[in-house]
Amino acid sequence: MSKIDLPQGTLDLLVLRVLSAGEMHGWGIAQRLSIISQEALQLQEGTLYPALYRMEARGWIQSEWASSENNRRAKYYRLTKVGKKQLEAQKESWDKLAAVVARVMQHE
């Protein structure tokens, strides 16, 4: 599958969704999104980390330093209660938007 450009505001939704499965470090988040999207999403550090910092400042996620699988220090991120509510709200909004866009695109 070819790479795609994310519509503005979509990255937060995707990161929150990945973190809903459990805590993960930044590189792991990027890898998980790449795998799930069949490599259509290739997030660069300059894209992912500012989003993580922004979401942490908003209280949607929390971070903690720990050792990674290969014994390197890594910052692990996890959803907060506020983040779970934000994920639900963004998913609901996304589902509505996707349905409207699909309806318009299918109209003759």
Describe the protein's architecture and organization.
With 108 residues, this protein is of the alpha+beta class. It has a single domain, classed as Winged helix-like DNA-binding domain superfamily/Winged helix DNA-binding domain (Arc Repressor Mutant, subunit A, Orthogonal Bundle), CATH 1.10.10.10. It has helices at 10-19, 26-36, 45-57, 81-106, and strands at 24-25, 61-67, 73-79. It has a three-stranded antiparallel beta sheet with strand order 1-3-2. The chain starts with 9 loop residues before the first helix and ends with a helix.
Secondary structure elements and pairings:
Layout: H1 10-19, E1 24-25, H2 26-36, H3 45-57, E2 61-67, E3 73-79, H4 81-106
Antiparallel strand pairs: 1-3, 2-3
What would the keywords be for this entry?
108 residues, 4 helices, 3 strands
The CATH superfamily appears as Winged helix-like DNA-binding domain superfamily/Winged helix DNA-binding domain
Give the mean pLDDT. 93
Strand content: 5-15%
- What coarse outline follows from CA principal-axis ratios? globular
**What is the helix content?**
55-70%
Total helical elements: 4
CATH architecture term: Orthogonal Bundle
Count of strand segments = 3
The SS-based structural class is alpha+beta
Span between termini = 28 Å
Across the major sheet, the strand order is: 1-3-2
Count of individual domains: 1
Taking all Cα atoms into account, the compactness measure Rg is 15 Å
